[in-house]
Amino acid sequence: MKPQILQLNPILIPATNEKLAARYEVHKYFEIQDQAAWLREHGSSIEAVITGGHTGVSRAMLEQLPALKVVAVNGVGTDAVDLAYCRERGLPVTATLGALTEDVADLAIGLLIAACRNLCAGDRFVRDGQWELHPSPSAIPLARRFSGMRVGIVGMGRVGRAVATRAAAFGCPIRYTDLRAMDDVPHAFVADLLELARESDALVLCAAADKAEGLIDAAVLDALGPHGYLVNVARGRLVNETDLARAIEAGRIAGAGLDVFVDEPRVPLALRQSDRTTLQAHRASATWETRGAMAQMVLDSVAQALAGERPAMSLTT
Ligand code: 8YV
């Protein structure tokens, strides 16, 4: 009999789904009607969980999976998995380390340029026929230059560094904050987030969300100020979304480019209605190239764990 696998999120790479189906009995949790009953009945036979970074897996579910040999996260964020519990249990939790760095950084820069150059509002203006109705160049307010902007990076991990490389190519002076200064990073470290916000034209959030809930609040947004932009490609809950919505509505910051939100797929109305925001539906890693590489890492991690090996991408064992 094939090993039983529980898949919590769809994988969008057909070849991976074919390989999974050929090797394992794959149970698609997201298609199961009575999930609680299903878990009670089948939980004891599940040997691997595949999940998304944002979805993770609850401790309550893990406790119902006694035969589990691996949690393979199809993503880089593991904040939605109780790593301490998995460590105690000797359970490998794997992530797709390094696979999505470039795409997430690309989207961060894309969102920042889109926000400061009003790309989406401009697109709507042309698309809606407004240009013909208002042909004067004064119908559209002037935008803000991206090249040379002072960029503050919050979280100088793989993604933060890739954002820095890209921003540096646009002539942007870069500063960053993290839990500590890093010897191998050529940019100025600023320990205090408020100070970083005051010294930046744009703050780009690339930090893990584990211990940083609500890190970006009204005080940080006010320090960023009415000419400042916020970009978030990390996790929604790094930001106090109520504070952000108020700052956007009142023009206390110039704009925001957001790929992630506190309660996805729900996005506060104030953020959806504003011309100051450029929004994406958690798409930073959603290219064929990256999702293909991520899916391969997931396949490898599951295969290694079920073969009794320590998965190369394990963060907990
Ligand atoms: C992925 C993410 O889109 O890597 C992460 O932590 O949140 C995302 O980039 C998601 O995990 C896909 O399942």
From TrEMBL:
GO cellular component: cytosol
Statement: the UniProt record of this protein carries the keyword rRNA processing: no
Keywords from the named record: NAD, NADP, Oxidoreductase
Any matching Pfam family: 2-Hacid_dh
PROSITE patterns reported for this sequence: D_2_HYDROXYACID_DH_1
Domain D-isomer specific 2-hydroxyacid dehydrogenase NAD-binding: 109-284
CDD domains: HPPR
GO terms, molecular function: gluconate 2-dehydrogenase activity; glyoxylate reductase (NADPH) activity; hydroxypyruvate reductase [NAD(P)H] activity; NAD binding
InterPro entries: D-isomer_2-hydroxyacid_DH, D-isomer_2_OHA_DH_cat_dom, D-isomer_DH_CS1, D-isomer_DH_NAD-bd, NAD(P)-bd_dom_sf
Residue span(s) of domain D-isomer specific 2-hydroxyacid dehydrogenase catalytic: 25-312
Its EC number(s): 1.1.1.215
Family classification: Belongs to the D-isomer specific 2-hydroxyacid dehydrogenase family.
The name this protein goes by in its record: 2-ketogluconate reductase
Top-level taxonomy: Bacteria, Pseudomonadati, Pseudomonadota, Betaproteobacteria, Burkholderiales
